[in-house]
Amino acid sequence: MTTSPPSPAGPLHAQVQRALDQAVADGGVPGMVAEVRDPRGRWFGSAGVADTRTGRERQPNERFRIGSAAKPFTATVVLQLAAEGKLSLDDTVDTWLPGLVKGNDDDGGTITVRHLLNHTSGIFNYGNDEEEFAKFSGPAWLEHRYDTYTPEHLVKIGLRNPRSFEAPGDGFVYSNTGYILAGLIVEKVTGKTLAGEIARRIVRPLGLTGTYLPAAETRIRGPHPRHYSTLFATGTDAEVYDVTDQSATTGWAAGGVVSTVGDLHRFTGALLRGELLPLAQRREMFTMVKTGVKLPDGTWTDTWIPGTTYGTGVWSWELSCGVRVWGIGGAITGGFSFAMGTRDAERVIATHMNIDRYGRYNSLDMAKTVIQAVFCPSGSPTRSD
């Protein structure tokens, strides 16, 4: 697929560039890129470096780990299979994976494929398991960075914890475990690998040039920035580690994909414009649920990012100026990635920073600032959350 050269920077793009520069200067980000596509064309901006050791600059064609932005790839494959009549979103997990989800009040006979895709299953997120989290935070991560997991093992980790709420559909709690199960269902239905189905159904039809789901390999293919992390340390002076090489098996269908800003743009635009799914499945993808649960006293509590709703792999985010954007996003040890746009895909930004930070220097806040530079121009009103 050929791409047009970047368009000259205008006032809006200058605002995005300032936000990128601020993320590097004030937010503790080694390097950040953004690509904006709107009626004026395509604009690419960058700040900081791809490698703190060499000072190498960031480039448009770099590949990086996209974390949970992998989920819409898995969801799209599932929805395509539904469109082909090979499965139904109303199928239970037991229909395809009999006996795998059982015990600790989890029951694969009551949890549907739809519950998995919109995080309303109630199955515990394996990434929050106390034992596993201890392995993958702090210096212990360096000892376990190459550990390999089968999808079935990840599911078992999730299932050894209590459910997040009583009955499937009663609330929303973000769960990587649900997407691992969805990936296993894809492989059961098709008899082929999830990686192969993503390549056949999404990567090749869209002409994506830097997107793939790794298997056991721990290095990123082709040009890529170094990935950095404080390993969940929150202090402003927290030590930063190079975490570029790591096992992708801990994320797989929920967070293992590698991509580029250009590919994320093309994929997200295709989802927003409805290029990959028939009408019925597009409606399913954008049928949104509130990201929270109702407490026993009847009050509501957010369980994810405030101001969001979630569909099947895609989500919406109300920005501080009141504008709502739609798209995909994710975090992984070593980076944050987003591709968000207007519902008609007339304006979309894809962005990546090569670090994950929490606490005062919060990568989510930095990413939101860059996204808002596109959709909340200077002087637009803002509201307090």
Give me the CATH superfamily: DD-peptidase/beta-lactamase superfamily
Determine the mean pLDDT: 95
Strand order within the widest beta sheet:
2-1-16-15-14-13-12-9
Which descriptor suits the 3D outline? globular
Helix-strand pattern, N to C?
A: HEEEHHEEHHHHHHEEHEHHEEEEEEEEEH
For the terminal residues, how far apart are their CA atoms?
Answer: 42 Å
What is the domain tally?
Answer: 1
Report the CATH architecture: 3-Layer(aba) Sandwich
Under CATH, the topology is which? Beta-lactamase
Summarize the helices and strands and which ones pair or pack.
Layout: H1 11-26, E1 31-38, E2 41-48, E3 64-65, H2 71-83, H3 93-96, E4 102-103, E5 106-107, H4 113-117, H5 130-135, H6 140-144, H7 151-159, H8 176-190, H9 194-206, E6 228-229, E7 241-242, H10 252-255, E8 258-259, H11 261-273, H12 279-285, E9 289-290, E10 292-294, E11 300-302, E12 308-310, E13 315-318, E14 324-332, E15 335-341, E16 348-353, E17 355-356, H13 363-375
Parallel strand pairs: 6-17
Antiparallel strand pairs: 1-2, 1-16, 3-8, 4-5, 6-7, 9-12, 10-11, 12-13, 13-14, 14-15, 15-16
Helix pairs in contact: 1-13, 2-8, 2-9, 2-12, 7-8
Structure description:
By secondary structure, the chain is α+β, with helices and mostly antiparallel strands. The chain has one domain (11-49, 64-375): 3-Layer(aba) Sandwich (Beta-lactamase), CATH 3.40.710. It has helices at residues 11-26, 71-83, 93-96, 113-117, 130-135, 140-144, 151-159, 176-190, 194-206, 252-255, 261-273, 279-285, 363-375; strands spanning 31-38, 41-48, 64-65, 102-103, 106-107, 228-229, 241-242, 258-259, 289-290, 292-294, 300-302, 308-310, 315-318, 324-332, 335-341, 348-353, 355-356. The strands form five sheets. It has an eight-stranded antiparallel sheet with strand order 2-1-16-15-14-13-12-9, sandwiched between helices. Helix 2 (71-83) packs across helix 8 and helix 2 runs antiparallel to helix 12. It is globular. The mean pLDDT is 95.
